[in-house]
Design a protein that fits this description.
Jelly Rolls, 2 domains, 10-stranded antiparallel β-sheet, 5-stranded mixed β-sheet, globular, binds 2,5-dideoxy-2,5-imino-D-mannitol
């Protein structure tokens, strides 16, 4: 462990053109999972996995920020730090916040051991409006992974809710040689937890080795949703969701999907005062540690998304409407047939784009951003109607292109809706509210800012583009 926290001000690294300006990230250093996301007395609190000692993963603390609108954030002092000799001495890992009859409480994983291989569940209480936290002297309040798993090194990320008179908790884990698992617990007093059974066990070939950061909640009144972040054993992987019925504490998934196909991981949800189920997720970096250390920062949070289900129980995600309030200069490209490529007058590295296309049976269509004048650098986001795929492809002068192709079938008569949130090196892509592809673009030059619309055998219905300002004034 490094001995001194590293303090770099927001101002000092603000000119880094890879750094997002309207997505949340701490003043400096490493951030990963969102933690303890909750609306409290009107204000949203976001905690996050934070390394005060550098821009790489390690020394996990909980950072803290608040917001009135989910867009502008105020930084606060660290909320949780490891206690030497305590069950979290090697790190305060991920968890959630709950309102216990007016008292805010955090549940989180304490990690112990050089390899963080003893993981137990802990809690902390605040008596001053979520600013400072007292750890429970009885920690850990849940210490033994169920025998079915036996893997104390993979027992983490409690998610807690109240149902009827009882409290319930799900914890992420795995079953050796089988796959990721989520275990279900019940408590009357939030201290003594009784293991009920696995809520769901995955299949290592299809849904990963370890399940992290489970979320379990009812949505649109009639169905329950389980979200898990699948770890491959050596790296963070894909986020999956399951939608189904939950009766007598038994979850029967009917629909399964991918919540994000690329760089969004460990999302956390909360129900806000307006009754919205909000999701925020860590946008991880896709560059080596040496580049992160040189930059002095790593990791961003997605723009919070509102969740809902469509008639087929597919998960829909829409960036919160609050984002609309900060949009700057607006440009609109009116309806037109597409045959080739057109460079737009608008350009930028912080943009909100919303487009509707109508591809023919063999048509292709999409938007390119971060384009250099000569086209040597560009990031193309396009749909292939024949293949029913959405592709993101980044070409940076001289380097091998980064390409991701994911399935995206349109329903009969459905048009292609593309929402792109470009912010420095972050590119959130959401197609028809249900296919999420979060991508990173480490452009070679700040001047590469062009936007193009591309297509063949397709029609553009409309493209709206807004320039986005910095949320840090
Ligand atoms: N990150 C935390 C864990 C969690 C993982 C540690 C997911 O609690 O399982 O930083 O990214």
């Amino acid at each position: 462990m490094m001995s001194e926290p590293v303090q770099i001000s927001r101002e000092r690294i603000a000119s880094d053109f890879q750094r997002p300006i309207y997505h949340f990230l701490p003043p400096s250093n490493w951030m990963n999972d969102p933690n303890g996301f909750i609306q409290w007395q009107g204000q949203y609190h976001l905690f996050y996995q934070y390394n005060p000692f550098g821009a790489v993963w390690g020394n996990m603390h909980w950072g803290h920020a608040t917001s009135r609108d989910l867009i502008h954030w105020q930084d606060h002092p660290i909320a949780l730090a490891p206690t030497p000799g305590g069950p979290d001495e090697a790190g305060c890992f991920s968890g959630c916040a709950v309102d216990v009859d007016g008292t805010p409480m955090l549940f989180y994983t304490g990690a112990r051991g050089e390899r963080h291989d003893t993981q137990t569940q802990c809690r902390a209480i605040s008596r001053d409006g979520l600013m400072t936290w007292e750890k429970d002297l009885r920690n850990p309040i849940l210490h033994r992974v169920p025998d079915l798993s036996g893997q104390q090194a993979d027992f983490r990320d409690p998610f807690v809710w109240k149902q009827g008179d009882a409290w319930y908790m799900v914890v992420g884990s795995r079953v050796e040689d089988v796959g990721g698992a989520v275990f279900l617990y019940r408590s009357d007093d939030l201290v003594t937890w009784t293991y009920l059974h696995p809520l769901l066990i995955g299949d290592r070939e299809r849904t990963g080795l370890v399940w992290e950061c489970p979320n379990f909640f009812p949505l649109d009144d009639h169905r329950w949703v389980l979200i898990v972040s699948a770890h491959t054993g050596s790296a963070t992987g894909t986020v999956f969701y399951f939608v189904g019925d939950y009766v007598d504490h038994q979850f029967t998934p009917a629909v399964q999907g991918v919540l994000d196909h690329a760089s969004l991981y460990a999302p956390l949800t909360t129900l806000d005062d307006a009754g919205r189920r909000l999701l925020i997720g860590w946008i991880r970096e896709e560059r080596p540690d040496s580049a992160l250390t040189a930059a002095g920062w790593a990791g961003a949070q997605s723009i919070p998304r509102v969740l809902s289900l469509d008639s087929g129980s597919r998960l829909l995600m829409t960036p919160v409407s609050e984002l609309g309030a900060i949009r700057g200069r607006h440009s609109r490209l009116a309806a037109r047939p597409l045959d080739g490529e057109a460079t737009l007058e608008v350009s930028g590295r912080a943009l909100d784009l919303d487009a509707e296309f109508v591809p023919e049976r063999d048509g292709t269509c999409g938007i390119s951003v971060v384009c250099s004048m000569d086209g040597g650098e560009r990031t193309d986001v396009f749909y292939d109607a024949a293949q029913e795929t959405l592709t993101v492809r980044t070409v940076i002068d001289g380097a091998a292109p980064t390409v991701r192709v994911v399935p995206h079938a349109l329903d009969a008569g459905e048009h292609l809706r593309l929402r792109l949130l470009l912010d420095g090196s972050v590119l959130e892509i959401i197609a028809n509210q249900r296919t999420s592809l979060t991508h990173r673009v480490y452009s070679g030059d700040a001047a590469h800012q062009g936007v193009r619309v591309v297509g063949r055998q397709a029609r553009l219905n409309a493209l709206d583009i807004w320039e986005m300002p910095s949320i840090w004034r």
